[in-house]
Amino acid sequence: MAFDGVTIAGIVGELKEKLVGNRIYKIAQPEKDELILTVKGSCGQVRLLMSADASLPLLYLTEKNKTSPMTAPNFCMLLRKHLQNARIISVTQPGLERIVRFELEHLNELGDLCRKYLIIELMGKHSNIIFCDDRDMIIDSIKHISGMVSSVREVLPGRTYFIPKTQDKAELLECTAGETAAVLKAKSLPVYKAVYMGFTGVSPCIAQELCYRAGVDADLPSAELAGEALERIVSELGGLADCVKKGRYCFNVVYENGQPVEYAAIRLSSYAQDQSRCFKRISELLEYYYAEKNVITRIRQRSVDLRKIVQTALERNVKKYDLQMKQLQDTEKREKYRVYGELLNAYGYGVETGAKSMEALNYYDDQMITIPLDPMLTAGENAKKYFDKYQKLKRTYEALTTLTRETKEEIDHLSSISTSLDIALREEDLVQIKEELIESGYIRRRGNAKREKITSRPFHYVSSDGYHIYVGKNNYQNEELTFKFATGNDWWFHTKGIPGSHVVVKANGEELPDRVFEEAGRLAAYYSQARGQEKVEIDYTQKKNVKKPNGSKPGFVVYYTNYSLVIDSDITGIEQMGDDK
C-alpha cells in the first residue's frame, strides 16, 4: 500500500486540475481527524476528503458524503469562519514529501483580501491537518502536538510552521544521475532498501518495482552496484522522476487471489497484467482500494466474537479428539488378551502351579509366544482374567470408535464454520453463520429473540464460456445449493478432504468445455481453507451422485463416484455477478 510521495504527486496533479480557481462552499468534520471540503466552480461540485487518521491517512476527491455531528468541532468552526467561500489559489507539494499545501484566498471581517494555507501531512502516525496564516504562523491544527509529545516540532497555535527534516534523504526530483549513483553507493543496504531509504517519497513497493524493471537483484548490497547494473537502476530512478515532473502516471491496483493487495501511481510490471486493474483518476483508485480493504477489515471486526466462539470450541474438540485417539490406541492390545485367554484354555492343563509364564503355539499364526501368568492363580483363572481385560477393552474400543467419529465430525463442522467466517464479506453473511452456531448449541438465543431474517445469497460467477457458477458462503447455503438449487446433471465441486464451499455449475443439459471445469475448480479452491495454495485437489461429480447422510451436520455430504483435478486457487479473470462484486 504505497501512499508515498509519488502517489501524492499524482493526487496533487488531479487536485490542481479540479480545484484551482474554485471556491470552498462547505466544510464538514465527520470524524475527529477528518475533513470534507465541498468545492464549487467551473468543474461543478466536488468533495475533497482529507484524513489525518494515524492508521490510514488519506486525501482524494469523492462523490460520497458523510453524516456530520450535530455540533461541529472547534477546528471545523474555525475553518468555516475563515475559509467559507475562500478561493483555492494553488495546490502544491514540496518535492516528493508526503505533504500537500493548499493556498487559499478569502475576505476577512473588514473585507480585505487575505491569504491562508491549509496543509495536510500524510505521514502515518504523524499525520495532521494544519491551518496557517500568510506568514506560516499556525492558527490551529486538527491535532495539537506539544513539546512533551514531540521534541522535533510543536504543532500548536502561535508556533511557526516548518517541515521537519528527520531523515537524511535526497530529493529525487533534483538529483543528477551522478548524485543518484552516489546516494545508492553510500548505503550498505540491499538495493531496494537503499532506494526507498535514500530518496524522499519512494516506497518499498516502488523500490521493488524499479529493481525489477532494471533487472537488478533487489537484495544485492547497494555498495556492490557497479557497471551496467548501477546504470540501469539509476536510469529507472531518473525515469521515475521524469514521469512525476511530466505527470505521466499509470494508476493501478494489483490483485492476488481476487483481493486487492497493492496499488501505485506507476505501472507495477512485476505483477502479471491480468492481475491488475487500471484507473483514469487516482481518487477513483484510492476510493475503490480502501473501500475494498475496509470491507474486509470491518467484517473481521464484526466477526471477532463468532471467531472466538468457534476457535474455543475447535481447540476443545481437537484436544478431546487427541485424547480419545490415544485411548483408542491403547485398546489395540485387546486381541492379544483374547488370544492369551484362548491358548490358556487350550493348553493350560500342562501349566505347573506357581508358574510365571507359559510357552504355547499360537495357532493363528503358527508362532510360539510367551504368555505372562499370575503365579497366585490357576491357568483357568488367568484365562478368565485375560478374557475380562479383552471384554473391557472391546467395550472401550466400541464406545471410543463412536465418540471419535462424532468428535471428528464436530471438528470438521467447526472448521467449515471457520472457513465460512473467512469467506464472509458482509454483515448479512454473518447472520446465517450465527444462526448455525445457535442451532448447534454454541450460542444461546437471547430470551424470546426471533430468528433473524436471512438476506445473504451465494456468490454468483459466470465462466469464460458463459456458464453460471454458484458458490455457497456457509453450510446452509451449501446445502441449499446442492440439494434444492442444483439439478441432477449439474456439476458439483469441492476441495478433497478440506473444509470449503460447495460449487455448482449449471450445465443446462449441455456438455461443459474443459475451461469451465478449471474455473469452477479454482473457485472451489479459493473458497476453502486451501486459499492461496498453488496446488489444490478438487473432487467433482454430477449433483445426482451427491448424497446427504441421515442426521449429518449441515453441509455434510458423501459421494462415491467422482473425478479429480489439481489446480491453483487464483480466481483472477472469472467474472463475478451481483452485489458481492
Write the layout of secondary structure elements.
Layout: H1 5-19, E1 23-31, E2 34-41, E3 44-51, E4 58-62, H2 74-83, E5 87-92, E6 99-107, E7 113-121, E8 128-132, E9 138-141, H3 177-186, H4 191-198, H5 204-214, H6 227-246, E10 251-256, E11 259-264, E12 276-279, H7 282-302, H8 304-330, H9 334-347, E13 357-362, E14 367-372, H10 379-423, H11 427-439, E15 459-462, E16 468-471, H12 475-485, E17 491-495, E18 503-505, H13 514-526, E19 536-542, E20 563-567, E21 575-577
Helix pairs in contact: 4-5, 5-6, 8-10, 9-10
Care to give the gist of this entry?
The protein is of the alpha+beta class and 581 residues long. The chain has 13 helices and 21 strands.
Measure the end-to-end span.
21 Å
Number of strands: 21
State the shape. elongated
Helical amount: 25-40%
What gyration radius follows from the Cα positions, in whole Å? Answer: 35 Å
Q: What's the story with the biggest beta sheet? A: 7 strands, antiparallel
Mean pLDDT: 89
| Fraction of residues in β-strands | 15-25%
Going across the major beta sheet, what is the strand order?
20-19-17-18-16-15-21
Number of helices: 13
> Which regions are unreliable across 5 or more consecutive residues at pLDDT < 50?
none
Q: Give the structural class.
A: alpha+beta
